[in-house]
């Protein structure tokens, strides 16, 4: 019989002879339109071969005796047991790519989370790990540190293959802080200072707000951090009191602190865009050498560039492509 397979289609089917298929989306779509694949709904969208697919593959193999699959064609990774599989896919669907355990906000929110026994097995599979930090004196382990688990590149590959989830490196945006801030929140009835304002609300100047608007269009709020002259890299929900410190002041954050924070946030495994002035960019580059800083000119120019990026998806995607290229060049050194 004639198999009717294109060379690419044949290589994809031949490389996945357990019946669960991964490959380029366009090639998979062609195989589906030919009736050779169907979505494998039991495995959250993974494709599987139909009977016609098996027959076409058998015919191709008869016409190509001894011909191996493409040497570098990725095979579908073996499926993990149920809860481990769900844990990896749950992390892949999160912007921060953390595997939710009992210490994760997902637990308190009543969302899916996973017990320590499951997390331990996911770590052993190589699909998740903790982020090393500069102060580690030896190789740190998840059991010893209790740090959050994040997906490794192998874990992202598993999620792409086994969950059809388009997960890649996280897209992190760092924005400069601002001089104009909310007033101090005051004290309570006992004279004790009230908690500070969330960092995402503290800075109220027009320049900072323009950076933030562009950042909100570029990525999820969980992946936006503020470069504070006093505190370094802070998430939007961290409470801060107003302060009057610039990078030129003696109290300013030390480069070593930025290095420690960048490591803890796993910025080496993320595409990173920085929005702000060159003084902050220079501070960050020592710890995040693949940083992409697209803004140029004075504050007015930068506000205009941010407004255009906020409204134009093409500009935002171009920035991310440049950030990904810088990461690839950095990783290849």
Structural commentary:
This protein has 333 residues and is α+β, with helices and mostly antiparallel strands. The chain has three domains: 7-63, no CATH class; 82-163, Arc Repressor Mutant, subunit A; 170-331, no CATH class. The protein contains 14 helices and twelve strands. The chain has a four-stranded mixed β-sheet with strand order 10-9-7-12. Helix 4 (82-92) crosses helix 6 and helix 10 runs parallel beside helix 13.
SS strand fraction: 5-15%
Largest sheet: 4 strands, mixed
**Silhouette:** elongated
Number of domains: 3
Helix count?
A: 14
Kindly state the mean pLDDT as a whole number?
Answer: 89
Low-confidence stretches: 69-73
Would you tell me the structural class of the helices and strands?
Answer: alpha+beta
Query: CA-to-CA gap between the ends?
Result: 50 Å
User: What is the helix fraction of residues, given as a range?
Assistant: 40-55%
Q: In order across it, which strands form the biggest sheet?
A: 10-9-7-12
Order of helices and strands: HEHEEHHEHHEHEHEEHHEEEHEHHH
How many strands?
12
- Rg estimate, integer Å: 24 Å
């Amino acid at each position: 019989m004639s198999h009717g397979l294109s060379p690419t289609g044949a290589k994809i089917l031949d490389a996945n002879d357990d019946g669960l298929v991964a490959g380029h989306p366009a090639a998979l779509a062609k195989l589906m339109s030919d009736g050779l694949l169907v979505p494998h709904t039991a495995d959250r969208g993974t494709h599987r071969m139909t009977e016609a697919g098996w027959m076409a593959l058998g015919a191709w193999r008869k016409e190509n005796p001894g011909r191996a699959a493409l040497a570098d064609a990725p095979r579908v990774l073996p499926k993990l047991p149920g809860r481990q599989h769900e844990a990896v896919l749950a992390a892949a669907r999160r912007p921060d790519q953390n595997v939710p355990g009992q210490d994760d906000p997902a637990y308190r929110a009543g969302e899916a989370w996973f017990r320590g026994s499951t997390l331990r097995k996911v770590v052993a599979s190589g699909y998740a790990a903790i982020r090393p930090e500069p102060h580690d004196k030896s190789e740190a382990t998840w059991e010893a540190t209790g740090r959050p688990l994040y997906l490794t590149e192998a874990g992202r590959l598993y999620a792409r293959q086994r969950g059809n989830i388009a997960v890649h490196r996280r897209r992190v945006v760092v924005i400069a802080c601002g001089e104009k801030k909310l007033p101090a929140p005051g004290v309570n009835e006992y004279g004790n200072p009230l908690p500070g304002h969330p960092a995402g609300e503290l800075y109220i100047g027009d320049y900072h707000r323009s950076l933030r608007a562009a950042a909100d269009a570029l990525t999820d709020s969980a992946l936006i951090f503020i470069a504070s002259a006093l505190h370094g890299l802070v998430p939007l929900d961290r409470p801060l009191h107003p302060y009057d410190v610039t990078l030129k002041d003696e109290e300013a954050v030390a480069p070593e602190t930025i290095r420690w924070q960048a490591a803890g946030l796993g910025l080496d495994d993320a595409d990173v865009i920085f929005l702000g002035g060159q003084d902050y960019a220079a501070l960050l580059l020592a710890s995040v050498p693949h940083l992409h800083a697209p803004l140029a000119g004075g504050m007015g120019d930068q506000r205009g560039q941010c407004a255009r990026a906020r409204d134009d998806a093409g500009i935002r995607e171009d920035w991310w492509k440049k950030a990904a290229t810088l990461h690839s060049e950095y990783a290849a050194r």
